[in-house]
Structures are given as structure tokens and as C-alpha cells.
Amino acid sequence: MRNSINPSPVILAALLPIVALAQGSAAAQPAAAALESSRSLLPPPGGDAAGGLSIVLRARSLTVEPDAGSIAEGDVELRRGGLVIRADRLEYGSRTDTARARGNVRIQVGGARFSGPELELQVQRVEGFFLQPVFDLPLLGTGGSAERVDFFGPKRSQAIDASYTSCPRDGLQDPAWVLRTSRVTFDLEKNIGEAEDAVLRFYGVPILAVPGLSFALGDTRKSGWLPPSINIDNRSGVEVSVPYYWNIAENRDATLAPRLITRRGLALDSEFRYLEPAFEGRLQFDWLPDDRVARSNRQGVQWVHEGTVGPGLRYMADITRVSDDDWWKDFPNANRSFTPRLLPLRAGIERAFALGSFGEAVAYARALRWQVLQAGDSAIVSPYQRAPQVGLRVAGRAAGFGFGAETEYNRFTLPSGEAARAGRLPGDRVHLLAYINRTVRDGGLWFEPRLSVNAAGYRIDDAPAGARRRASRVIPSFSVDAGMELERPTRAFGRALRQTLEPRVQYVNTPYREQASLPNYDAAAKDFNVVSLFTDNVFSGVDRVADAHQFTAGVTTRLIDVDSGAEALRLGLVQRWLLRDQRVAPNPDGSVDGPPLSQRFSDALLTGSTNVLPGWTLDAAVQYSPEIQRSVRSILAARYSPGEFRTVGATYRLSRGSSEQVEGGWQWPVWRSSAKSEGGGCNGSWYSVGRVNYSLKDRRVTDSVLGAEYDAGCWIGRIVAERLSTGRSEATTRLLLQLELVGLSRLGSNPLKVLKDNIPGYRLLRDERGSRPAAEEWQPVP
């Protein structure tokens, strides 16, 4: 039975330049032109595509027999367009159009070099053979050899007893890894290669063998088996997956990945992608029909789809669902959401409208529901569901004024299984958010007054006895924002810089409206940062508007490199001053409806970042309380990256009374061999990689990634252990193993995403080559 494989290539396709060379030789010839001596093996300016290419033959000794041919000896060179043959001896028969080259035969074309003892080729028809050729691809750093290559025309060839590797091949020992096949055929018309009896050996040990395989030539997608993947974790044991890629059509494909999980049983993962002119999407389905640990049938599904209907009408859907609460713990690599315990079901449709020269409007209808995955020792409170959410948004400018408005109707409900309780009752809300402003700029000065309104009406289901079922409120707000942008040339740290000074002040006046008796569906305290301090409301969402009579003042200075435009240094300070008590204020924990705020001066926020020291990046943000005269929240980070594959960083996070953490991450070489290894001449380098997050308050490691990479030049080995906390006393630990054969494929599990997501500044030891194209690289089919 013949198998099919789609590795970025069983790269015996490296022999393709021979076919490309022959294909160019068979082209028609242009009119004769003046010859110019050239040391590079390039086709003439006219290329090979025109007709009438002449044969140029040079040698130390040349014998010509009329109507019979020529015999050339000593530094022989035959050229015909892009075809160049060099040898010790060459016979060319003009009657048969056959070139026979013997002794140190060499061909160089298309960035590839080939050499061998004997070549016979019918130049025009591109038919013949090359005995014992050795090939090198300098751009890829790969190459190989074959006992024989047969040419069957400009687009078909066959190699016998071929081998391929990226390891050095000039020693007495075999390469560290080599792919051997008894026969491989290339068909450029069908863009397909087929190999028989393929065996992949690593240090002499066969690690992959198939009686037959086929692969796509070039970047063309082709159905076939992808390299196997292996995962090990403490909850499921050893997991082996062998994906099959199905190239259904130019704009549709699928991947089916049977999995064997030692503790749980057999599973199947699948993915289907499609791309049409008016819509595109992806459907993923994971199925474990009989989990021996959970004693149940388990599955997870995600469908993401978006498209357009007619001019301006867009729609979308994002549905993620799993069978049980423990899915996110047992299968962390199969999580489909940025929030693994909150799985969304979103659907929506919207239509954009032009408002002439004034602006534009968008009308929309949406629905949002949640599946909440609870854990016994760490329950979470889900956000409200919205079904439906119908609204209209308008924005534009007129007579020098900017304006915007948003009005919505929302039906808020609780996820299935979550009972209503005090303060969390389903209901309806209609709201209107609107503003009008004007921005005035004069050189480095700017000034922006703004008038806004937040109006909302509520209908509450099952309101408690004595409470109102219906309520409404309207809250206006006025603010003035102003600032300056000053700059001057300077010089520091041995380079020309431009220094800026950017002071900014804001005044806000919002009257008090009682809101504690109103429901809270989506309001939360904003994070304390530079952006939130210069807003007119300390709450996000709609349901809470803080009364405010306040000034906010801040200043930022930056040093900018004149030559590159990069920011070398940034320092900032910002603080808020209350002119009266704030009666609608958040709690210290970030929830709404806290006690009144009477502290006149808010916490001061100091920020800074710099990279003026070579290789260093420093960041800091400190929230300082003038009331207790100490910091209440701090983030300090430093990273040292003196060169490629060398980065180490540390971050300290403090939230006083809540958490205190230290995090370290690194990628660093720990050992490099100065001598050649025994495996085919590859040098080796060891790299340590990792990230550790330690809670000083709990005195335990929360999350960690530890691993090592070994770069042997022609192959890379990776071993990475990842520990993810899934509860106060629970964690999932995974072991990821990968063998990357440079120029061929990657085998085993894939730790690269884990390393890139967790280690700031992490660099791949080799450029990443995907096993199949990404959906965004496709082109729609009309």
C-alpha cells in the first residue's frame, strides 16, 4: 500500500534544479548575439525562453568532425543557454544531439551544484542519464547523492538509490541523519514527487520507514500524512498523534489526527478550513468516545465563521463548546479560547452606512452566551450573557466639531446552572452614550473641550420585595483636556537625540446620581494607569458613572534617537486631585459600589522605560500612595539581550495586600563544542530555556517552563517541561520532545509556541517552516 506524506518536503525534491536546468535547455533559441565572457553560470540576457539557442563548446583540445560531432578534452565547458556542463572529456554528436561527458563532470544551475563521473544527455530533448551524481544546495545548506538520475524529458526525471541530508558529507562517517530511498520520481507537469522504500535514519537508527510516499513539489499543498507528534503529561500519560492532511480543493482543506492516549484511549482531532469570495471559516472537532479515566464520552468543538452579504452587510459566528468542566485541565493543548474556563458562543450581524460628508453609522445585532467551566477549589463568577444585543453607532464631524453616539438594547441573563442571587438578577437595559467635542491645535499646544451624556433605562426580572422593577437615570459630564508638545535637540549616551516635554492637564465635572440601587451588568473599575487617569469616568462599561469634580495633571519626557526614530528613554508622572468627595467610587478590589472617596490626592503613578544601555531593556511602573506614604502596586522589569539566542529577564509584581510575584525567563547558551561531533561533522551547542513564576505570598511556584535545546547544526533537539496551575492544589505537567531535522521536517511534539508565548525575546534557532499553509495565505476561488 502506498502512503502519502506532506512534509515540507521529503526534500529529495532538491534534485529539481536538474529538471529545471533541462527544462531551460529544451527551450527554443533566440537570434545569434555577441558573446561576452562570464565567470558566472547565468543564462544570456534573452533567457532560455526564446528559440534557437546556440551551443558554445570550449576546451584545451578540440577536435571537430563535420556532420559527425566534436571531441573536447581538458577543462571542457559546454553552454547552451542556462545549461552548463564542465568535464575532463566531452563528446558531442551533432547528428544525435547527444553530449557524453566523463571525468569530473560538474553542473551548476539555479543555486545548486551537481557533480559525478559520467553524464549522457540528448540536449534538445533532455533525455539521458547522470551516473553517481552528488548535489549540493548552498542556499539551503543541504545536499545528497544518487546512484543514477534518468531524464525522461524537460519535466520528468527519476533518481535511483538517492539520499538527502543537511549534515556535512565530507567525512568518513555517515551523516547524523539521512533520508534514503530506492527510487524517487519527479513530475513537474503534475507537480508531484513519488518515492519508494523511504527510510529516515538518525545516527544509523531507522526512525521512520514507509514502503512508498508522495509529496508536493514547491509550495503546492498536497494530501498526505504529516510528521507524528508525541505529548506526555501527568493527567493523560503518553499521547501519540499521526495527522493526515487532506487537500480537498484550492480553497478547502482538512486535517484528521487520530490519537492514542495511553490512560484514556483512542481519540480523533479534526479541522476543516474553507475560504470563499463571500465567506470563510474554520471548524474544529475533538472527540474521545470512551475516556477510561473520566468514564464518559468527551468532545470539544469550535466553529469560527465570517462573511459578507451584499454591500456593507457583515456577519460572524464564534462557537466554542466542550463536554465537561474538566476539559481545560485534561487537554490544555486543545483549549480554543483565550479564557480556557469561559467559552463563548458569539453571533452577530452588522451593516455600515455612510452619512454623506458628516461621517458614518453602523447598525448591529449580536448575541453572546458563555459556557463556564468550574473547578471545585477555584470557582469563578461568569459575566452576564447578552441575547439579544441590538444597537446603532454613529460618529463623524461637522462644522469643526466631532460627535458620536451609541444606543443599545440588551437582554442580560445568567449562564445555565448559575442561580440568580443578590445583586445578580437578569433584566433588560436600554442605554445611550453620546458626546460632542472640539479639538483646537496651535503649534505645540492643543485644547479639547468635551460634553458627554450617559443615559440608561432598566427593567429587572424578579426584583426583591420593595425594590423597583423599572428605573432610569441620565448623567451629563463636561471635561476639558489640554496639553503641550515641546522638543529640543540634545546629545547623550554618545548619540544625537531629540528630547520632548509633554505636560497635560484635564478637568472633569460630572454631577452625582444615585446608582447603588441599579443593577450592574457590565461595569468594573478601570485599571490604574496613565490612560485611565485621563478619562472622565473611573468605570468601564455603562452601568456606573462616577461623580467627579477633579483635575488630573501629568508630564512625560522622552528621548528619541534622531537617526532611527526609536525611543531611548521615557519618564512619566501623573496624579489626580479631587475638588470634592466622590460618592460613586469603586472598592479597592476593583468591584463597584465602594465607599465614598474623600482622599483629595489620588495615588501618584510613576512610569519609566529605557534601552539606552546596550543590550538592556528596563521598564517600571510604581503606584505610590501619599496617604500611607508607600507604594501599593509596583511592576519592575529588566531584560538583557546582548545577542541572538541570548536573553534573560526578570519581573517583579507587587499588589499590596493581594499578591507578590517574581518571574524570570531566559534563553541562553550554556555549552558549545569546539570539536566536530561524531555524527557526521556537526558542531553542537546547548541552550537553556525557561520561565518560572514564583508567588512570594503563597511561597510556591505557580507556573513554570523549563527546557533545553541542542543545536547540532544539521539537527536540533528540544526537551521542555511545562507546569500549569489548574487550582489551589492542582497542576498539569507536560513533557514536550521534538527532533528537528534541518531542511526536512520536525518530529515529535511542538514546544515552540510554549517557548515563544512564555519567554520574552525568545528566538528560534532556525526559521520556522510550517507543515501546511495558513488560511490567510489562501486566495479565494471565484
List the topology elements:
Blueprint: H1 16-25, E1 56-58, E2 61-65, E3 69-80, E4 83-93, E5 98-109, E6 112-122, E7 127-131, E8 134-137, E9 142-145, E10 148-152, E11 156-165, E12 177-187, E13 192-202, E14 205-216, E15 224-225, E16 229-233, E17 237-241, E18 244-249, E19 252-261, E20 265-275, E21 279-291, E22 296-309, E23 313-322, H2 327-330, E24 342-354, E25 359-372, E26 385-398, E27 401-413, E28 427-437, E29 440-442, E30 445-460, E31 470-484, E32 486-492, E33 495-510, E34 524-525, H3 530-533, E35 539-540, E36 548-561, E37 567-578, E38 604-610, E39 616-625, E40 630-643, E41 646-655, E42 659-672, E43 685-695, E44 700-711, E45 715-725, E46 731-741, E47 745-748, H4 752-758
Antiparallel strand pairs: 1-3, 2-3, 3-4, 4-5, 5-6, 6-7, 6-8, 7-10, 8-9, 9-11, 10-11, 11-12, 12-13, 13-14, 15-18, 16-17, 16-46, 17-19, 18-19, 19-20, 20-21, 21-22, 22-23, 23-24, 24-25, 25-26, 26-27, 27-28, 28-30, 29-30, 30-31, 31-33, 32-33, 33-36, 34-35, 36-37, 37-38, 38-39, 39-40, 40-41, ...
Computed structural class: mainly beta
Extended strand count: 47
Strand content: over 45%
Helix content: under 10%
In angstroms, what separates the terminal alpha carbons?
37 Å
Q: Examine the coordinates and then state which fold CATH places here, giving the name of the CATH topology of the largest domain.
A: lipopolysaccharide transport protein A fold
CATH class category name of the largest domain: Mainly Beta
The main sheet comes to:
26 strands, antiparallel, barrel
Question: What is the domain total for the residues?
Answer: 3
Give the CA-based shape.
Answer: elongated
Radius of gyration: 35 Å
Low-confidence stretches: 1-51, 675-681, 769-782
Q: Overall pLDDT, averaged?
A: 84
Tell me which oligomeric state these chains represent: single chain
Q: Enumerate how many helices there are, as a single number.
A: 4
